[in-house]
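ok trying again, last paste got cut off:
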Amino acid sequence: MTSKYQVNMANCYGISSLSHEFTFENNNMPIAIYAPNGLMKTSFARSFKDYSSKKSPRDLVYTEKVSTFQVLDQDGVEIVNDAVFVVDSINEKYASSKMSTLLASEDLKAEYDAVFSAVGEKRDALLKLLKRKVGVTKGIEQMFTSSIGFPENDFLTALGTVEREVKKDSHTQFCDVSYKVLFDPKVIELS
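nice, full thing came through this time. structure:
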């Protein structure tokens, strides 16, 4: 079975005009959109995200231009907003109740949901412990990631890097030094 969807958009987050028919074979064949960085992928996803949230996509630079956006099925009927699901690729904390619908079987969906939930619970428990140990109540993730040179939204990646360093017994001489002392502005100034 083949499904076709026609996407028509104009003046949506820098995309001046795009009209394309996407064809899905057997309802299981994914379509990848490739473009160099800065060309249109984020604008495309953002337009779909607005649509799925029942908002109208717009152009942030040329605000006077009229923006249009529609997705039609093979019969020319506009699809409902709830049928669109956009995954935030650059948001580590992103979560959605629809996320597991990307997986093929009910068993995999259940397994994914259980793992995702367990990781979230362990992350929250670790952050609670870190806050208590460090003596800070807010911004612990940003402090942690920036102190080892990672972007603030890369907490889990930074954590993995630290885990590898700990397993190699790197920097064990600092294990008993408190975070507040180690990262005191005066200490950093001396380094």
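cool. Helices lie at 41-52, 106-134, 140-147, 155-167, 179-182, 185-190. The CA atoms of residues 131 and 170 lie 23 Å apart.
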